[in-house]
Amino acid sequence: MSTETLDADSSKSAVENAHGVTLSEGAREKVRSLLAQEGRDDLRLRIAVQPGGCSGLIYQLFFDERELEDDAVVNFDGVEVVVDGMSVPYLSGASIDFEDSIQKQGFTIDNPNAAGSCACGDSFS
To answer: Region Disordered: which residues (predicted)?
Structure first.
């Protein structure tokens, strides 16, 4: 399977077919800010699901320059979000936001596929 890159401004069904993850405007701005600090224009935000955590699966968010064969890529106004083929079923329908408040600072993931999560919110099943 080849890498599929779609523009988030394309039809909604096309974006959902890519990986089904949405990125809020606040998260887009934070990613742009972090990329500017890195000083590199070849990085993408990669979101993956890995075994681990107290509930069985854990989210991984990191900048990556690689593009793998089974990656699904969606461009959100200049911010490319990459999900590997094995993580797509776990993340389809998930929305990513960035929270910056007195209580919490960081990326949050609202995932309708998560049956349960641990108290820390970093792990799910």
So the answer is: 1-21
